[in-house]
Amino acid sequence: MSEVYALRRARLRDRCKAGGSQSALISRPANVRYLAGTAPRGAVLLLGKTDDLLLCPGPPEDRPAEGRPDETLRVQTLPGTAGDPAVAAADLAEGQRADTLAVEEHHLTVARHREIRSVVPRLRLTDLGSAVEQLRVVKDEEEISCLRIGAEIADQALGELLESILVGRTERHLALELERRLVDHGADGPAFPTSVATGPNAGRRAHRPTDRRVEEGDFLSVCLGAAYRGYRCEIGRTFVIGTSPADWQIELYDLVFAAQRAGREALVPGAACRDVDRAARQVLDSAGYAEGLPALTGHGVGLEIDEDPQLAPSAMGKLDACVPVTVEPGVHLPGRGGVRIDDTLVVRPEADGGPELLTITTKELLAL
Amino acid sequence: MSEVYALRRARLRDRCKAGGSQSALISRPANVRYLAGTAPRGAVLLLGKTDDLLLCPGPPEDRPAEGRPDETLRVQTLPGTAGDPAVAAADLAEGQRADTLAVEEHHLTVARHREIRSVVPRLRLTDLGSAVEQLRVVKDEEEISCLRIGAEIADQALGELLESILVGRTERHLALELERRLVDHGADGPAFPTSVATGPNAGRRAHRPTDRRVEEGDFLSVCLGAAYRGYRCEIGRTFVIGTSPADWQIELYDLVFAAQRAGREALVPGAACRDVDRAARQVLDSAGYAEGLPALTGHGVGLEIDEDPQLAPSAMGKLDACVPVTVEPGVHLPGRGGVRIDDTLVVRPEADGGPELLTITTKELLAL
């Protein structure tokens, strides 16, 4: 695995050189993990002119981290009194006779930036921008395999919940139960706070579970995901509680299902992100739900649950093969509830069978 | 409750004026919540020259938040295409004819700061520093009451766990079980990831639970906390599994207990933070455990689990009454395990009975 990280750093180094920077300071945790194999809290990665270094604030015992540092990487733990790792890294960059250091201006704070400038005034600070985030968009098969395992775990946890009795239980308890099952099946933990929404709450994106209890006739929408070796996937489903759904429930479900399918079917390499969004969104729009739709109908996943690309009306860029994304349109009717359907898929060329669905729980409208 | 928030903003406004700023932009989420009553994800607070405003990125449904905005505060939700709330806030500040805007340079990124400067080039940006964090250090009785309830919840969850059978269960399962119990007893959720550490892991600060199972003869150390109305407390205890602890376990426990008691007893209004740290630390130092001690022996708690003040050798400043802090020394012997004992207390004058212990679970060495 070490080779993977060294190769990623080599690619980033090429980008830096092309941008005129001799060294780079990576501070955003998911970016550090992507390039170093681990990201202890507060650690930064120096992509040096002569030598790469992971700088961790000490003592290490206070900073438990997932993953292991790549073996080809030098790791240095700073004593508690040594100040900030980012400042120490800049100091080291200057020691390696770099004259420019690219920093992640979208992550580094103004205060830290100022501190670095005062410690190494001769080092020219440039902006690395989202160079690492861009490298992270297209996944290798190892990364996709972690997402696939995470999706299997989420499918299992959800499947078990559906077999249990739901009426009378609170949103909070169902969410906790799902999270326990994720860990039971081998997840590092939930990929994000599990959302369980019943009745009038159903269909709300990222709804925080409340003490409301599941009732007969409710819509029940659930959104969960597993983190597996750092990779985060997402699945969302909506069910009906009781013997038979009401007509409005069936209609709304069919509509959101059609929108979600349109989004999934638009996932081809080379498709514009905004066109994928439009494919899903226009189904809801033309049924009269233009108001109150979420800002995006999907997004990339990986080491973070919400990565590039964004599937949104104003999104730029096109999809590549091997990019995992969610497709998750939904409609929420205030006071009545609603429907969300959310899958994680990997963009694949048609020759390889088209988009690979990672979250395989049925999307039929189940009455539980 | 609205008055509380308006009063806090008035205090901050006084500080800003004293520092020469006519308006301030609060972006750090816990600071926004402290001043506005809620902090939807991505929201910022403008403390304007004429008018205060909470700016939230839209649509609101995508941004569930705890708490409610203070009724005296104007809330504005930006459409998804309106750009960043911090930039919009700066624009509004200029519209209110402010000529200076104080920003939280320790939170605002370099990229956002640059964007603000380009949108409102005539507005002079200054540094608010940690003015809000400083206001947050001393708690009012309402805040302390939330911490007290959170501590009761954590005590209950821990007490119930101790009554169950532990041998053979994994660290991960015990941690999840504790988190479920926290929610059962009314917590918003865990205050931080619950730590359960057995055998050689015991006594490690912020240990991430693994699949190791509890065995006879183990030390078991547990650290958990409840979030209640946004306020986060912390309790840590160490137990022995089996009928009778080994001599080295009793000795180590007594030592850490003595250090923790020394720290607690040093909590008086006016005490230097470093002296409280020293009181606890020197007990461990003089027993030969100077190496490998954690960087701090305690810290403030409140809307964040790790706030000012820090109880550490290099800490500046003194304790005031009504400041809640943890006292949490520990010793970890690599390969053997160790002991941590952690309480949340509120600094109180001796006339009021001295430090108020919020986490009341026994600190006897229980053999479970």
TrEMBL record, chains A, B:
Superkingdom of the organism of origin: Bacteria
Keyword terms of this UniProt record: Aminopeptidase, Hydrolase, Protease
GO molecular function, one term: aminopeptidase activity
InterPro entries: Creatin/AminoP/Spt16_N (IPR029149), Creatinase/aminopeptidase-like (IPR036005), Creatinase_N (IPR000587), Pept_M24 (IPR000994), Peptidase_M24B (IPR050659)
Pfam families to which the protein is assigned, alphabetical: Creatinase_N (PF01321), Peptidase_M24 (PF00557)
Domain Peptidase M24 residues, every copy: 146-348
UniProt region (Disordered), positions on chain: 189-211
Protein name according to UniProt: Aminopeptidase P family protein
Species for this entry: Streptomyces guryensis
